[in-house]
Each structure stands twice: as C-alpha cells, then as structure tokens.
Amino acid sequence: MPLFKRKAQFQGKLRLKKGDEVIVLAGKDKGKRGKIIQTIPDEGKVIIDGVNIVTRHQRPRMTGRATPKTQTGTIKKPAPLAGGKVMLICPHCSKPAKTTIHLVEDGGKTRVCKLCHQTVDAT
Ligand SMILES: [Zn+2]
User: What is the pLDDT of residues 11-50, one digit of tens each?
Assistant: First the structure.
C-alpha cells in the first residue's frame, strides 16, 4: 500500500451495492436520492434509478424477427455515474453515511454506518 494519498481516481473497489440508496454529491443531479439499480465494478460506476437521465434515440432495428426486443424511439434512461460522486444513505438513520468495513466471523465483510453503528447491508 502506498503511503501517499492518491487523488479521487478509481482504485478498483466499489463500496456500493445494487439496491443501496444513495445521494448524489456532484453533477447536475446533485442532492438527488435514488436506488442503485446496477453497479459497474470495472469502471467504478453505478446506475441510479432516476438520476443522471440521458435521452437516447434508438432506431428500430431490422432483425428479421417480428418483434425487435429493444425499445425504439426516444428513450430516457439513467446513465452510469461515478461511484465517488454518490454517497450511501444509511437505511437506519437515513443520513448520508460514511461506512466502515467490519469483518464478520464467516469471513465476509459488512458495512457499518459511522453515525449510528448499524449494519448497512441487508442480510
Ligand atoms: Zn446510520
């Protein structure tokens, strides 16, 4: 482990999980809350329901089959947001909470809210 502090660059660990409620700290949706519907650990990004909505124009594809699976026309969907731009909201005290990692006996890890000391992870 390097002793110096690295800048806010993605380091390969995403502390957020699908289903977490988070608050957005930066960007156009600053202050918004939402649930994580997908995580992209490789990029350190998360997709949050209703946050960072982008409009995509999808053209109908001719696949040869009768019904194309993809939705066509103008679709709005949440775009991935950097994990560092969001903060987990503790389900117990419903405040944006920093978490610490606690090791549990069976070898797993659990996240604990620093404010109320409750386990954040759903069991
Ligand atoms: Zn808490």
Answer: 667 889 999 999 999 988 999 999 999 999 889 999 999 9
**For residue 110, which phi and psi values (nearest 5 degrees)?**
-135, 150
Is residue 96 a contact partner of residue 67, using CB atoms and an 8 Å limit?
Answer: no
Q: Could you tell me the pTM of the whole model?
A: 0.74
Domain limits, the chain: 8-60+71-89, 92-123
* Residue 63 CA to ligand 1 centre (angstroms): 50
The CATH label, of 2.40.10.500, 2.60.40.60, 2.30.30.30, 3.40.190.10, for the domain at 8-60+71-89 is 2.30.30.30
In this prediction, residues 81-96 reach a mean pLDDT of 93
C-alpha 22 – ligand 1 centre gap (Å): 13
Q: How far apart are CA 66 and CA 21, in angstroms?
A: 39
CA of 65 to the centre of ligand 1 (A): 51
